[in-house]
Every structure is written in structure tokens, then in C-alpha cells.
Design brief:
Helix content: 10-25%
Strand content: 15-25%
Shape: globular
Number of domains: 2
CATH topology of the largest domain: Uridine Diphospho-n-acetylenolpyruvylglucosamine Reductase, domain 2
CATH class of the largest domain: Alpha Beta
CATH superfamily of the largest domain: Uridine Diphospho-n-acetylenolpyruvylglucosamine Reductase, domain 2
Number of strands: 9
Distance between the termini: 44 Å
Strand order of the largest sheet: 1-2-4-3
Structural class: alpha/beta
CATH architecture of the largest domain: 2-Layer Sandwich
Order of helices and strands: EHEHEEEEHEEE
Length: 142
């Protein structure tokens, strides 16, 4: 129960981004289950299930995208990856870090404190809660 929801309020929260394009509230689609996987294995199992059942997968970070990518106009299952917050690996030698998609810039910088490295706000967004959203990112030296 804490990792899946069919509630309309949750669907409205996750059914659109900042693009202004119509999301699930503006399209005639079936209810979209929202799931919060907490481990890579759970994502893999859900992806395999969606593939077998030919159900669209809709990944969700913070909803700040500008392309309409989270707008489930064909239904599907929304994967909210915000609970995947592990910082898996940090290499000071090559200025790289491997993170799960729910790691925020603030959380990463807290983890980097004392190393002489930081992850600055980039052109991708100005919000403090901006999700990094990729598996590996370079970080800058001071």
C-alpha cells in the first residue's frame, strides 16, 4: 500500500509536467496506477511486467520537465523514482558519482561536503529539489 496508489489526487499530481501540454487530467484515459519502486530490482520487475502486458511505462521525477514526457495520454503505469535515493559510488579521482534517480542536487552536495567537490545548479533547472535523474554524473572540483 505505501508503494502504490490509484488515488485521483496522486494521479493529478503526477499526470503532467511544466510543459503546459495536457496530461491525464486532460485526456480520456484509464486510471493510471502510481508506483514508487525503492530498488533497481523492483524497477526491473515492473518494467518486465509492463513489457509482457504491453502497458506503457511513464517515469516521473519531480514533474519539472518541459516536454510532456510524464503525460500518460495512453494510460500506463507511472513510476515515481523519488524514493530511490542511494548514492552508490563516488570517485574523487575522476570526478564522477553514480546515483539512483531520486537523489537531489542538495542531497548530493551534502554527501560531497568535505571532499572539495560540488554539483552546481545547471541549465536543466533552478529548483533546490531538482532530481539528478541519471545514473552517473560528473561533479566539479572547487
Amino acid at each position: 500500500a505505501p508503494n502504490i496508489s490509484m488515488a485521483m489526487a496522486v494521479q493529478k499530481q503526477h499526470g503532467h509536467d511544466e510543459s503546459g501540454l495536457a496530461g491525464i487530467s486532460g485526456a480520456a484515459v484509464a486510471p493510471v496506477p502510481m508506483v514508487w519502486p525503492q530498488a533497481v530490482g523492483q524497477v526491473q520487475e515492473l518494467a518486465a511486467l509492463c513489457y509482457r502486458c504491453r502497458v506503457p511505462m511513464v517515469p516521473f521525477g519531480t514533474g519539472t520537465g518541459l516536454e510532456g514526457g510524464v503525460n500518460a495520454v495512453q494510460g500506463g503505469i507511472c513510476f515515481n523514482l523519488s524514493r530511490m535515493e542511494a548514492i552508490a559510488e563516488l570517485s574523487l579521482e575522476d570526478f564522477s558519482v553514480t546515483v539512483e534517480p531520486g537523489v537531489t542536487r542538495k542531497a548530493l552536495n551534502k554527501h560531497l561536503r568535505g571532499t572539495g567537490l560540488w554539483f552546481p545548479i545547471g541549465s536543466g533547472g533552478m529548483r533546490g529539489a531538482m532530481r539528478l535523474g541519471v545514473a552517473a554524473l560528473g561533479v566539479l572540483g572547487v
